[in-house]
């Protein structure tokens, strides 16, 4: 959806304790030029981001997103973000999303090449209408991510736990899924374990237990997955992080891709084979995800 | 170095046969905002690029760079670039580099999210002074790239042969090399074969033969390497593309990282072990690389 609002952020040091951030924000026309061609975000995909769901003006799970932003910054040797400043930026941007579902995106770029500081901004947009994939489900194909499950532990410079702007492979995987007649993809490690979708986490159900790939296998720790696990635990279900061979996914009682804006999309087909889904249960998950969450 | 010049390009269809492209170019201040925050280059590292060396206003090996730009576009499902238009943009940008060594960068982004066309631009800058690494050499460490040598053949969505804007891992590898006290890195496949440097190709010498990793192992086909191989063949040397185990690199008689702007930098240390170099020979390589090449 077209951006409704953009806010340039003059990034403060993490230890700056001021409480009013207004002077560090500049609203800009999202359709007008705001970034120079020397930006390393654009030249090198060199920066990090977060996408935060917004429901009727309320940004969801802000602290989890800000924690992950800080974690990504650390992995990428970017200056630690000033969390209070970013929290304030989220509030300003969320208030511009309008009613219904929206999305606030935070971007922290390494800045202009050889420049003094990072470049930072937030945007606000209405969300696309995801009622169809939530209700009717999605067809998914598995795609090799090329890395062994133990790659990130061996090679932190692969940035596998960071939510970087270098998403060309994620976008190519989505195009490949569409070419194959599917809606989305699930990445597998080169040694056959389930990882994540290009822009979502995976949760599968085995009886009354809900399982997600352990976030040490080169995947992002999904904020929506975290929130859903809390919710499921409150409802009395077991939840677990595991190293999941792809065959186990194929045998799951049900599975979902979950993300901050599309929320819980039940997988109805995996590599061409039908997967059971529980429409009523999915509805309850999305009702929770659409309620105000902090 | 600070950008001297930037040219926004209104991308033409590949089959547009006009001969005057002036009306499709708009010079912009490289220090002023020129891109919107909705740009997919900046949000997703979703686009491709080329860096072309310029010597006294002459852009080097333009056709090889434009061919690779077209190849990258194909791998990334971007519209085929109009080569004549890009050639004209290179000429305009190269003329703004001034005397001495410069660099022209071409960027083709997927454009604004949900927008109608790609975004394209070229920049011109004076090159940094690389006389020191050319003359005194560079210390290099090997780093695991995480992929097996046969990954790209299995998984084209990994975009391993495309020069995409998603370079966060390349930049992280350079930071890791610096942390280890080195100047640069050489990526290895997860099964122990030599690939490339984050922003350069590798050439090694074995007697009178010069060898480079075969560009089917998930690496870019280096334009400088291609040009040097032609030059070496003309001087009567053997040249070959091979699958090179890392031990073979360690036993090489000499090795260089070669790229469009730094040119040939002899490797004097590999993972802490000294490597022989031939200063006179390197000088002859760089003399060739600094001569006008088409």
Automatic annotation (TrEMBL), chains A, B:
<dbReference type="InterPro" id="IPR036038">
    <property type="entry name" value="Aminotransferase-like"/>
</dbReference>
<comment type="similarity">
    <text>Belongs to the class-IV pyridoxal-phosphate-dependent aminotransferase family.</text>
</comment>
<dbReference type="InterPro" id="IPR043131">
    <property type="entry name" value="BCAT-like_N"/>
</dbReference>
<keyword id="KW-0456">Lyase</keyword>
<dbReference type="InterPro" id="IPR043132">
    <property type="entry name" value="BCAT-like_C"/>
</dbReference>
<protein>
    <submittedName>
        <fullName>Aminodeoxychorismate lyase</fullName>
        <ecNumber>4.1.3.38</ecNumber>
    </submittedName>
</protein>
<dbReference type="InterPro" id="IPR050571">
    <property type="entry name" value="Class-IV_PLP-Dep_Aminotrnsfr"/>
</dbReference>
<dbReference type="GO" id="GO:0008696">
    <property type="term" value="F:4-amino-4-deoxychorismate lyase activity"/>
</dbReference>
<dbReference type="InterPro" id="IPR001544">
    <property type="entry name" value="Aminotrans_IV"/>
</dbReference>
<dbReference type="Pfam" id="PF01063">
    <property type="entry name" value="Aminotran_4"/>
</dbReference>
